[in-house]
Automatic annotation (TrEMBL):
Organism encoding this protein: Cyclophora tenuis (Marine diatom)
The protein, known as: Nop domain-containing protein
Nop domain mapped to chain residues: 1-84
Top-level division of the source organism's lineage: Eukaryota
GO biological process: spliceosomal tri-snRNP complex assembly
Organism taxonomic ancestry: Eukaryota, Sar, Stramenopiles, Ochrophyta, Bacillariophyta
Length: 239
């Protein structure tokens, strides 16, 4: 004998506190695994029935059991649906196989369409992953945003590697400015190998022209017209 029976106490297992609604016949007829679910439904319908009685008394109408009977029928229908086992799935027979040979599209036109939309060699390399190759960022690699074998030297390296050209910052000093001015003067004064003093005229044919003589003629005209001592002169011919 255990200590509870020796002390004169009952050995029966006590039920948890569930209230007086658990003694309802609707709940007692339910299986044990559905009693808690049915108890919640009965409590909700009981609250609605109490409200219906209060409204009838408050408005002076006689009490009626129509609402309570309607709620009871709804509860019984729900419990019956819970208890009813699910229907077994219906196994549908497979359709009759079509043993006729279907005509497949072919010919030069279909071959050209397939060639137009087929995967290129570069895309094949991009969709191929190298085994045990070190990838870049984990996020891009996990999402599949990689170049595949195109980005590796083992895959042939079909992608052209572009080298970033950085401009060297020049120092702004007196010596650097002087050097830049000298280089600009040399580039301006130097002429290419195609320069020549030979001129082709439509009347006289080929003749040699002195470039210095033309420059001296321009300087003489500038001294005549655009010097400080020239004064005001008219370009119109004298009458």
């Amino acid at each position: 004998q255990n200590s509870a029976s020796r002390a004169g106490l009952s050995a029966a297992a006590s039920k948890p506190h569930q209230g007086i609604l658990v003694e309802c016949d609707l709940i007692q007829r339910c299986p044990a695994y559905l009693q808690k679910k049915a108890l919640k439904v009965v409590a909700a319908k009981l609250a609605l029935a109490a409200r219906c009685d209060f409204v009838n008394v408050d408005t002076g109408r006689p009490r009626s059991a129509a609402s309570g009977q309607k709620f009871r029928q709804e509860i019984e229908f729900k419990i019956q649906q819970w208890i009813t086992p699910d229907k077994a799935p219906v196994l549908k027979a497979l359709p009759k196989p079509d043993l006729t040979i279907k005509k497949r599209r072919g010919g030069r036109r279909m071959r050209r369409i397939k060639e137009r939309f087929e995967e290129t060699d570069m895309m094949k390399q991009a969709n191929t992953r190298a085994f045990s190759a070190q990838a870049g960022e984990y996020g891009d690699d996990a999402m599949g945003i990689t170049m595949g074998m195109l980005d590796t030297a083992e895959g042939g390296g079909s992608v052209r590697k572009t080298i970033e050209k950085r401009k060297v910052r020049q120092t702004n000093t007196k010596a650097s400015r002087k050097r830049a001015a000298q280089m600009a003067a040399q580039a301006k004064s130097s002429s290419n190998g195609l320069a020549s003093s030979m001129v082709f005229t439509p009347v006289q044919g080929m003749e040699l022209v002195d470039p210095e003589a033309n420059k001296e003629r321009v300087r003489e005209a500038n001294r005549k017209w655009f010097t400080e001592n020239a004064g005001f002169q008219s370009a119109l011919p004298k009458k």
